[in-house]
Amino acid sequence: MPGDHSSKQYDTDLETIRSKVLTMGGLVESQFNDAMDCFRGGDIVKAEQVIKSDETVNSLEVTLDDACSHLIVKRQPAANDLRTVVATLKVITDLERIGDEATKIARIGKQLHERGTVGVLNHYESVRVLASSAANSLHDALDAFARLDEKLAAQIIAADETIDNEFRTTTRATVTFMMEDPRTISAALDILWVAKAIERIGDHAKNIAEYVIYVVEGKDIRHTDYVYTKLNSKP
Amino acid sequence: MPGDHSSKQYDTDLETIRSKVLTMGGLVESQFNDAMDCFRGGDIVKAEQVIKSDETVNSLEVTLDDACSHLIVKRQPAANDLRTVVATLKVITDLERIGDEATKIARIGKQLHERGTVGVLNHYESVRVLASSAANSLHDALDAFARLDEKLAAQIIAADETIDNEFRTTTRATVTFMMEDPRTISAALDILWVAKAIERIGDHAKNIAEYVIYVVEGKDIRHTDYVYTKLNSKP
């Protein structure tokens, strides 16, 4: 059994990793915001920065996975503590995939502006609500992970349904544009791919929220109706 | 330090988990094949089976994550052994997401046939090559994971570029259909969403292959050009 000293060391090491994961989270959050800026305003330089910073996100993924492994081997945590490390390993994967989706958005934004097809459709307006919901979920997910706030996590999971509905609304509206004026098809498809990327960022935020609840409650609530029970229960 | 006995127990426990992960892999592979069958032939019963079996895949994810955690706590593996458990945890996530994508394909196939829009475009033909490449990659990835075959894993990673190219070919062809005859727009979008799901299954197969190399080589090759060096090196 690890003594007090070892357990304190474990806590310190874990906090170091968690704070680096939050740095990674801040980075992908900026990537997403900048990618959306670029999709709206056509800032090519910003788009290239998003694409470039994906390298940093990728190397953070590798470094932090490694740090988690080292922590396990060195401190041999008990079941309760291990749960946090396992959840952190999974969160790191979700953050890296959010970076990938942001990079896709930046690439499409860049193309849109290079081809000069920005004005064809009100492309940013089509995804504005969806993007703002996903950005909120991501921000809250990082907050919930930082403070291990299971109440906030439950709200994020419930909000994913709204994001999915907004995605369907965007899709329907965009298809209507295409049908009314087939010259908009190319531009409309760019909107659809961006909407898909945003919807996936929402999914990853939801995954992170599920891992927060797993850490706090010691209960794996993935694929259950735990959240609905939780949100509807009396305080 | 764990003695010989403990280390043997670790090996036995690990093999049990790995064999269950392969069962999960076989299940999502069937889901993908059945979903494609349904997209081609409109077998609604099969589509519903795919959607239903997603529950099994989801509960396998939770059970196997748990088994990995128990293994770590009980056997306290050394760095080398731990690498396999960490990679297995990540593989489990990719398998579950493959199940999600297969379920999406089954849902679209079901809708397509319920709406009677099957004949509008040669929808299956549009994704046939892409689907077959992704199915091969997934099959090989499970094989590479079963036999810890890093050579095969390197081939899968290299093949992902082909899959991405096939995805772009499908997209271009489908957009041409839409432009030539706007009445095909709805049916064409179904093809695009299915193509996207297949492309992602290819991505997950690639992720699994990367974890295989991480286990065998003890080297994290994600986001590096390791594979190209490896494939081009003299034996």
UniProtKB/TrEMBL annotation, chains A, B:
Keywords: Cytoplasm, Phosphate transport, Transport. Residues 22-108, 130-212 form the PhoU domain. One of its GO terms (cellular component) is cytoplasm. GO terms for biological process: intracellular phosphate ion homeostasis; negative regulation of phosphate metabolic process; phosphate ion transport. Transmembrane segments: none annotated. Pfam families: PhoU. It is found in: Cytoplasm. InterPro entries: PhoU (IPR028366), PhoU-like_sf (IPR038078), PhoU_dom (IPR026022). Homodimer. Plays a role in the regulation of phosphate uptake. Belongs to the PhoU family. PANTHER family: PHOSPHATE-SPECIFIC TRANSPORT SYSTEM ACCESSORY PROTEIN PHOU (PTHR42930:SF3). This is Phosphate-specific transport system accessory protein PhoU. It comes from Noviherbaspirillum denitrificans.
